[in-house]
Structure formats: C-alpha cells, structure tokens
Amino acid sequence: MEPQRIYLNSDLPISLRAYRTSPINEQEIQKQVNEMLDMRARIVAGEKVLITSAAGGVGHIAVQWAKAAECHVIGTCSSEEKEQVLKELGCDRIINYKQEDVAGVLAKEYEGGVDVVWETIGGEMLETCLANLAQNGRIVIVGGISSYKNANAVSSKMDVPSIVLAKAASLLGFRRGSYRECFSTYFKHLTQHFQEGKLKTIIDNGEKSTGNEFFGMEGIIRGVEYLQSGKSIGKVVARLH
Ligand SMILES: NC(=O)c1ccc[n+]([C@@H]2O[C@H](COP(=O)([O-])OP(=O)(O)OC[C@H]3O[C@@H](n4cnc5c(N)ncnc54)[C@H](OP(=O)(O)O)[C@@H]3O)[C@@H](O)[C@H]2O)c1
C-alpha cells in the first residue's frame, strides 16, 4: 500500500513527519513523536542545534523539543535572567550575546559548525548562523524580529548562494499556517506532555516587568512593544477579556 503521509504539526518550532499504512492510533502517534522525525530541520539525536532568541516564546519550546530529541542545544539570549531560564530548561551552551560574541563562540567551540539552526532574528544573526553552519546544515527561518521595526535593517553583503552551495546547506521557511490540519492532533500531544511535566511553558503577561497585565486592545499594543523591547521571557500574552 502506498504510505500515507501525515503531518503532526502546529505552532511548534520543530515539526514532525510520519508515515502510516494503517489507521493512526495514540500509540503510533507517540512512537512517531518519540522518533522525532522533523519535517523542516530533520533533527536527529546527537546533532548540534542552535536556537536564537532561545528564551523567547517560540524559543523556549524549541530548546525543550531539541533536548527531547537528544540533540546538543545551543541557545542565544541577552540577559542573565534569560541565561538562568535556559539553564533550567537544559540548554547545553548558552550564549548571552551582550557578553559574548556569538560568531567567536561558534567558531571556537563548534569548529565543524552547527547542524541545525532555529532562527527568529534575521539580519546579522542570520549571517552569523550561516557562516557557522556545518556541511549539509539546515537553517529554519521562523521570523526576523530585528527588521520588524526597521525594514532597512535588512542589508546583507554576504554571498548567500555561494555559501549555501559550498556547504550543501538548506535554508527553509517555517510557517505555522501551513500546518493547520495538524493543530488538533498536535495540541493533544503537547497538552499531555505539559500535564506530565515533560514540557514547561513560560508565559509573560507583562505583570512582573511592567506592573500591569497586558489587557484589552491597549494591552495588545503594550504587549507588542514589550515583545520588541527584548525584555520578555517566554510567550508574551495579552488578555482580551
Ligand atoms: N513562522 C511562524 O509560523 C511563526 C509563528 C510565531 C512566531 N513567529 C516569529 O517567530 C519569532 C519568535 O516569536 P515569539 O513570539 O516567540 O517572540 P520572541 O522570540 O519571544 O521575541 C522577543 C525576543 O526576540 C529577541 N530579539 C533578538 N533581537 C531582537 C531585536 N533586534 N529586537 C527585538 N527583539 C529581539 C529578544 O530576546 P533575546 O535578545 O534575548 O534574544 C526578545 O526578547 C518572531 O520573529 C515571530 O514573528 C513565526
């Protein structure tokens, strides 16, 4: 029988692919999830996975995801508080880019390059990732927050085609909207992991840092500004009612 492809994806950083020849059941899903076949980055145990904005909303889940797949996880962040969070999540190498030069650390400590990058910043950070990518490496582009407020910030002198060619690398875009049909299945799986304490989620509703929860339409505006301030930890959430 021709294998049927199913996609177990959602708003999750690293998505899954599985194949089946019979009706799917919970056990099978679990097995596939444990196998961690990743559709975009195809991470496998032992690979070096670099996650930018690792203490961010998407990033802190990506760290746990890659750790669960037994990868060596490198996370970038910008404060000591975020460093602490990443330590607790099991990040193997934390690079606080306000204190250390990301390119320098990668060149020195990861001579052969990193295998996979989960990238949400863009600009210089993306260039650094590309320059320090291993042969056959994959960069999953999830966002580009460094240019959201200033489109002119995107200017690269890098010869991207030559580097991609030389490294036989892949640049992959990830859009959550492309995997809508998988949301419910995946949501169930995540909820289970969350309830079992295997997945930690960090919510930042603004209260701790600004004194007030992000609330209503005005709260959404404050929340977006806060998200772009670089101070948030975990997923920034605004409550509508
Ligand atoms: N493709 C998709 O389907 C999808 C879905 C959801 C979100 N996204 C994108 O994924 C990214 C992550 O989303 P998120 O909600 O989890 O946000 P986030 O990562 O929590 O974003 C905020 C963090 O970005 C980091 N950052 C780095 N450079 C920055 C700069 N120049 N200006 C502001 N912040 C900077 C800061 O942390 P550090 O400085 O500590 O690194 C900041 O705390 C965003 O770009 C978002 O648009 C994509």
Description of the structure:
GO terms for molecular function: 15-oxoprostaglandin 13-reductase [NAD(P)+] activity; zinc ion binding. This is 15-oxoprostaglandin 13-reductase. It is a single chain. By secondary structure, the protein is an alpha/beta fold. It is built from nine helices and ten strands. The protein has helices spanning 26-35, 59-68, 80-88, 102-109, 123-131, 160-167, 183-195, 207-210, 216-227, and strands at 4-8, 16-20, 48-51, 72-77, 93-96, 114-119, 133-141, 170-173, 203-204, 235-236. The chain has a six-stranded parallel β-sheet with strand order 5-4-3-6-7-8, sandwiched between helices. Strand 3 (48-51), helix 2 and strand 4 form a beta-alpha-beta unit. It starts with a strand and ends in a 5-residue tail after the last strand. The structure holds NADP nicotinamide-adenine-dinucleotide phosphate. Residues 53, 55-59, 76-78, 82, 120-121, 142-143, 145-146, 174-176, 227-228, 230, 232 line the site of NADP nicotinamide-adenine-dinucleotide phosphate (NAP).
